[in-house]
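Reading is simple: the C-alpha cell line describes the chain's fold. The lines below illustrate.

. . .
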Amino acid sequence: MQGTMWRNNSWLVDADGTVNEAGQMFLNLQKEWKADARGNVDGDGDFKFRGFYGRYIVEVMTATGKQMLQTFTMEKGDNTPLLVDLAHA
C-alpha cells in the first residue's frame, strides 16, 4: 500500500513521513559535505577548491557556451591535479 509505513516510526522519518531529528541531522550533514564549487579559472587557467574524498562530477562551460562533464575521484594521499582538456568541448 502506498502512503503507509509498516511500523510506527523509522530512523529518519516519523510514521507520517515527517523528517525527525535524526533525519534532519542527516540532511544537514549531506548539505555540509556536498562540495558545490563555482567560479572562473585564474590567469594560469587553474581553478582550485577544497573538497572531501570521493567521487565528483565537474561541469565546465567555455566562453563560447560549450559544456563538458567529467567525472573524477579524489582519494586520500592523491594530490594529482585534475586536467580538463577543453579541446574536445
